[in-house]
């Protein structure tokens, strides 16, 4: 393979690489075009719903002064977890020198990129005045750093995005140039991204647990719980992606990574359940002001039960998924569909638990103990689906860009 | 995706030149057409934004933070806001820029033995502060509480029937103008802050509407403008101040300001004037001769949610 010609510099060849990658990533079969068209259509529905929300005010959502954050922030919280969970591939690959993981580690990083993009979109969707977004940009705006946890979150999320863009961009670009990646240019960044993944989720947890007036969130266990569930949902998503990639492209060598990730989930899913259990014990055994939100979540309060079905669905999914993961047979090849099912359950379970099951009960009952219920409006669902569709588009394109690398693993 | 794409023999994936395939230009044309179609559809999808853009001017978009406006800029901004109120609401209003009076720290107190839950304060606040008429918004919420407890969980904000009821007492709650305000700490853009006279204010032209402060306030004191406030022209209170009761833009947070457009001009808050029982007391705690100072020194005084460390400048007492 050729290397970069003498008279060409990176400033010209990097854009070329991007262009070529995009060209290749938009080549595909009929099924691929159908998939992308569907995602585009969903994204457009979401974009339209959001534009209407901006034009008409957020009255189109079902949020209220009592429940001032809803589906958007719920999804944002979950997405931060998915982004952090993406690096679960990095830990075995680089810390334990798992050779097979090396070849697919990039998938976790691409997932992190797509997830962070979605995070940022969810935050923007939740703003009452998106036109004033620039107020949040340091220097030209007015940044309340270091007091506001939200400014911390803005920083760590964007840096995390840059770290992952650098690693993926660098590895794929070297591949394009036909060069061997130089470890000094990316291994330190990869190591940093592991620490950073933990920081994005910890800071996001601090957003909530720093609020003294919201007893449901005001627990030291919140950040560790976030991490545990992130390290379930991230790997679960990647396992399903790997199985799909294998089916659709016939790329080999993915079974090893799938097995490693399954083993990781076995541990993290149990840690997660253990933490949920100890939290519930503290809530219900101690009682007091803490318990009313938990009561509302699990059993309803004063006849108001909007969250109860969500909660029990999540518990059912999480427990079933945990049992499936613990069963040794899930690793066997002929039980693949079962593994996929377990991953989907764990994923949806974590989505409910970290989303609707975490954000909404923080507001119900309100600080004056009013019980105002919240069920997302159709507009909120449309915007949410639109952002998910966009995220999946980003992920699909990114994976397609990385396919050649996966097919012919380089010697890095 | 299928096994043939990218991996087809014609188009080795590791080839770094653009893929040379026979119908390359046709492909490019098709892709170009799809991209154009997509872009067109996107523009159509977000067209409602144009309507939103019409409602806000370039000057308002570029406006800096209140504390960074020069006197000249402030004058321009206020003139623009007055003109906008005329244009959108049909009302002639004057917007002042009332600043704290040096040596003043405002505090409020309510005599719970006297408050009978009639809700006149709630109504007065609604009118004084130009709240949206449809949603019947107010900065004050009154809880009906069973006697013998301070536990809000046992209270109700939606009580009805004649007041006062024998076995109840009434607890009005509004912004406590905390000395350690969590709402101010969390704001990512410093759109809300505490002024020297103790009043916590919001720059409605700087707030981005993230509602983090609403989540942080333990007293449910903040309100978000979920839609454009509607007030009939003849009901608009024309005596306004930049940081208080001017008609708020959609999509921002607002709160009680102890009626700073009145109190900084030596008047009393609207809720106090409206209270028929005399339960409300307001004043400058730094003034040793003031009534409020006497009450705080001689009565049994309570604050709400003391354990949170918010240090309210709002007190409750019993006779
Ligand atoms: S009562 Fe709420 S809004 Fe008022 S200063 Fe305290 S925290 Fe802020
Ligand atoms: S809603 Fe406005 S005032 Fe409140 S935290 Fe966000 S930007 Fe600050």
Key words describing this protein structure:
heterodimer; A: 412 residues; mainly alpha; Formate dehydrogenase/DMSO reductase fold; 14 helices; 70% helix; 0% strand; B: 319 residues; alpha+beta; Alpha-Beta Plaits; four-stranded mixed β-sheet; two-stranded parallel ribbon; 10 helices; 28% helix; elongated; disordered N terminus; binds iron/sulfur cluster
What's the SSE blueprint?
The complex is a heterodimer of chains A (412) and B (319).
Chain A: H1 10-25, H2 30-56, H3 71-86, H4 90-95, H5 99-126, H6 149-177, H7 183-209, H8 222-249, H9 255-286, H10 291-298, H11 308-326, H12 336-354, H13 356-359, H14 378-407
Helix pairs in contact in A: 1-14, 2-14, 3-5, 3-7, 3-8, 3-12, 5-6, 5-14, 6-7, 7-8, 8-9, 8-12, 9-11, 11-12
Chain B: H1 24-45, H2 48-54, H3 58-62, H4 71-89, E1 94-96, E2 106-111, H5 120-128, E3 141-146, E4 168-173, H6 182-186, E5 192-194, E6 200-202, H7 212-216, E7 222-224, E8 239-241, E9 253-255, H8 260-263, H9 270-274, E10 280-284, H10 291-298, E11 300-302, E12 314-318
The complex binds iron/sulfur cluster (2 copies).
Residues 175-178, 181-183, 200, 217, 219, 221-222, 255, 310 of chain B line the site of one iron/sulfur cluster.
